[in-house]
Amino acid sequence: MDKQAFYSLSYGVYLCTTWDEGRPVGCVANSAMQITSVPATIAVSINRNNYTHGSMERCGYFALTVLAEDSDPSLIGKFGFFSGKNTNKFDGVPYAVRGSLPVVDDGAYYFVCKIVGKTETFTHTVFLGEVTDAQKLRGGTPMTYAYYHKVLKGKTAVNAPTYVDEPRSESESAAGKKYVCSVCGYEYDGEIPFAALPADWTCPVCGVGKDKFVLA
Predict the structure, then answer these.
(1) For site-directed labelling of 14, which of 39, 43, 51, 144 has its Cα 20 to 30 A away?
(2) Where are the domains of the chain?
(3) pTM of the complete model beyond 0.85
(4) Do the beta carbons of residue 15 and residue 47 sit within 8 Å?
């Protein structure tokens, strides 16, 4: 199987948020699409191991925020590589209650959906949400998954439906080791040597410190 074929499919990058007994929670979603126009309905795929999954089932509603290309990339790290079970992902993140759900400010558009059905797959649940509200946040160019990989050089979380476990190729290995974030997989390839970066430097994707980087 040529795993590169999966990268030819088109995806966006979204934040899927909901309430957990009054506490805002959420995760990154990259498999979402509109499936009907009347009534407007959106489908989103969420891994059953994600803490947000159970919260969505209990709440019965979810919001989907479309991230823009210039959205803070640390949102992807914070919402995509940490668990809401033991982390307050909204800590320090500007958001507001919109359409009765927590919505992060730093996005292009948002949708509020009432869960009207779901389909179970091997590892994920595809939630069907009837759109009850949809508004512009600050606009901008919606971020694609290809942009996230090629421009931001981000990695895919293991629980993502698009995760592909690919070992480094022989050519990559021969090129030498790189400092890689042990949390989100970001590879540092900046002009400044890693050791020369200031002590307070953080991963541009997930925000962890230099101490979380390893040679790989």
Answers:
(1) 39
(2) 12-150, 170-215
(3) no
(4) no
CA distance 166 to 156: 11
The three-state secondary structure class of 82 is coil
> For residue 87, how many other CB atoms are within 10 A of its CB?
14
DSSP string, 154-176: ----TTSTT----PPPHHHHHT-
> What CA–CA distance (Å, rounded) separates 152 from 155?
9
What confidence score (pLDDT) does residue 173 get? 42
- Separation CA 65–CA 139 (nearest Å): 11
Residue 16, pLDDT > 90, answer yes
- Residue-wise pLDDT tens digits, 25-77: 999 998 999 999 999 999 999 999 999 999 999 999 999 999 999 999 889 88
pLDDT recorded at residue 7: 64
Q: Determine whether domain 12-150 maps to CATH 3.40.190.10.
A: no
How many residues in the chain?
A: 216
CA-wise closest residue to 46 among 7, 88, 74, 18: 18
Buried b (16+ CB within 10 A) or exposed e, 135-160: eebeebebbbbebbeeebebbbbebb
Q: Check whether the bond before 39 is cis (ω within 30° of 0).
A: yes
Exposure pattern of 104-131 as b/e (b: 16+ CB <10 Å)? bebbbbbbbbebeeeeeeeebbbbbbbb
pLDDT at residue 172, rounded to an integer: 41
C-alpha to C-alpha distance for 205 and 199, rounded to whole angstroms: 17
